[in-house]
Specification:
With 507 residues, this protein is an alpha/beta fold. Helix content is 27%, strand content 21%. Iron/sulfur cluster (SF4) is lined by residues 97, 170, 173-179, 183, 185, 187-188, 298. Iron/sulfur cluster binds next to loops.
Length: 507
């Protein structure tokens, strides 16, 4: 059952076998596995419950209802915007459907450097297979790539770089372009329309608008206490108290550490909130003679992965298309007044690609601010900055090869190239520090990292706290390093595997 706002008329006190905090990839997959294994599961979700009827394909509605801080969540210095979902289904409800397995070199590094057990490519293979089947992950046929994705496929091919179509978790996609605004056609097989309904079928109780504020641990019971919010005004209505022997924190790499830090638990290592990675992302924008219309068609269906771990140092970058909706474009494009107006008038002729860096020497931290909310900091390392520069350079070349007449970066000081020969010199002079180029992240990871050394990690390879038996963290925060691919399939696989182990262990 999914609780509706009118079902609640006072404080809520409940008990369960398992209380899960967060209903995204980590929480949703855990809820399905554990409720199907016969556990009484309660899922607490701070955001509201919205369905295809609520998704009107406008940015205003989507940012208001479905995103953390109305899509304005950012590092404290505002240098990196951190996009995340806040609704039943979590970030999967607003994500762009790219479905990729964890690269083997990344899993090998987790084992070698962090002692992570049972999460090799072979261990995860059956989970990847099962998830891909469940979510109908498939490659789009050639004719389905929109012009924005074709820039990557065609441009990279001309330059001899490896590019390919990526898997997508959809069924019956009508190419509306609205993945980032909630799919009005239920074609995107996100957690809200797959794992959550299946968990409910197996008896799970989903409590939307329930924000967990604190976990209290005493002997073998745990209490999750928090606030029930009004779905529209977000003001507090009542308090709740859920008692359970097993608690799974699945509130994401930004919000899970906040909850643990506020609760004063699971941090004997001192690593909670540390080692934040972003897949630090910037973009290039090409101006074409033909219509690209970056808000339409399938938003993301191709990537150039030529430069990921190319030097064997575990770093590098990859390039993907990005859906550009008008408000987002107005915020990201450089310039002011007339200049900015002229740029926006060319909206239908722009194509945009993102460059995502798999960090090796950049790191951030999530702490708690005086309002009890996340305080996010991040600083870039020399190597990653060099990869970002190379990535922007490469993406600009790809745009010209695909036919762009002009290409620009998102530097604060406008950096516009009229031909490929101008790229190198202008990028040499460009500034790459905080707030000198627009940066964002839709993939925060790593703030409660897993490992077998209790001094260097927060949870073990089964995602269980080193300090508190029965307390698990199962979401994007457990990855020991940056991933190098879009994370949803990795998080789902870790969740399915570890939820199975919880069901088995606590039989
Ligand atoms: C715009 C966008 C596009 C993306 N595109 C892709 C893509 O194409 N492919 C891909 O693989 N990945 C993509 N991602 C990333 C992917 O969706 C996330 O990495 C993944 O969903 C993270 O899963 P999670 O379980 O860690 O957290 P989330 O899915 O973010 O879920 C966490 C949930 O916990 C809730 N929560 C937080 N705090 C509390 C609290 N105190 N109490 C109760 N509930 C709480 C939140 O509201 C949220 O719903 C995208 C993300 C975004 C934002
Ligand atoms: S592009 Fe496809 S999956 Fe995305 S919102 Fe539109 S119909 Fe849904």
């Amino acid at each position: 059952m999914i609780l509706r706002p009118n079902d609640i008329s006072g404080p809520v006190k409940e008990s369960a076998d398992v209380c899960i905090i967060g209903s995204g990839c980590g929480g949703g997959a855990s809820a399905k596995i554990l409720s199907e294994a016969g556990k009484k599961v309660i899922v607490l979700e701070e955001g509201g419950n919205f369905t295809h009827n609520d998704f009107d394909m406008t940015e205003q509605t989507a940012y208001t209802n479905l995103y953390q801080q109305r899509a304005g969540q950012a590092t404290d210095d505002l240098s990196v915007t951190v996009l995340q979902g806040k609704c039943v289904g979590g970030s999967s409800t607003v994500n762009w459907t790219t479905s990729l397995r964890t690269p083997e070199f990344v899993l090998d590094a987790w084992k070698k450097n962090f002692g992570v057990k049972d999460l090799s490519a072979d261990d995860l293979e059956p989970y990847f297979d099962r998830i891909e089947k469940y979510l109908n992950v498939h490659i789009e046929p050639e004719e389905n790539h929109n012009p924005n994705n074709r820039i990557i496929l065609n441009g990279a091919k001309k330059l001899g770089y490896h590019a390919r179509a990526t898997g997508r978790n959809t069924n019956g996609c009508v190419k509306s372009g609205a993945c980032g605004l909630g799919c009005p056609f239920d074609a995107k097989l996100s957690v809200d329309v797959t794992y959550i309904p299946d968990a409910v079928k197996a008896g799970a109780l989903i409590f939307p608008n329930f924000r967990a504020d604190k976990i209290e641990v005493s002997e073998n019971r745990k209490h999750v206490r928090g606030t029930i919010l009004d779905q529209t005004t977000r003001t507090p209505r009542y308090e709740f108290d859920i008692e359970a022997p097993i608690v799974i924190v699945a509130a994401s790499a930004i919000h899970s550490p906040v909850l643990l830090l506020k609760s004063g638990i699971a941090n004997s290592s001192g690593h909670v909130g540390k080692h934040l990675t972003f897949h630090l992302t910037s973009a290039v924008v090409g101006i074409f003679d033909e219509v690209i219309y970056p808000a339409g068609g399938i938003p993301q269906s191709a990537m150039c992965d030529e430069f990921l771990n190319k030097n064997g140092d575990g770093g590098g970058f990859w390039i993907e298309a990005v859906p550009v909706y008008p408000a987002l474009a107005a915020l990201s494009l450089p310039g002011f007044g007339e200049e900015h107006h002229a740029m926006m008038k060319k909206f239908i002729n722009i194509g945009a690609s993102i460059v995502l860096v798999k960090e090796i020497d950049s790191e951030g931290e999530v702490a708690v601010n005086s309002y009890g909310r996340p305080s996010i900091s991040y600083s870039t390392g020399i190597k990653d900055r060099a990869y970002m520069k190379e990535g922007v350079n490469t993406a600009a070349k790809i745009h010209f090869a695909a036919g762009a007449k002009k290409v620009m970066t998102l530097h604060t000081t406008p950096t516009i190239f009229s031909s490929p020969s101008e790229i190198e010199r202008q990028l040499e002079n460009a500034q790459w520090g905080a707030n000198e180029i627009t940066m964002f992240s839709a993939h925060p990871l790593g703030t409660c990292r897993m490992g077998e050394d209790v001094r260097k990690s927060v949870v073990n390879s089964r995602c269980e706290s080193h300090d508190v038996p029965g307390l698990f963290v199962i979401d994007g925060s457990v990855t020991p390093t940056s991933l190098g691919v879009n994370p949803q399939i990795t998080i789902l696989a870790i969740a399915e595997k570890n939820a199975e182990r919880i069901a088995e262990h606590y039989r």
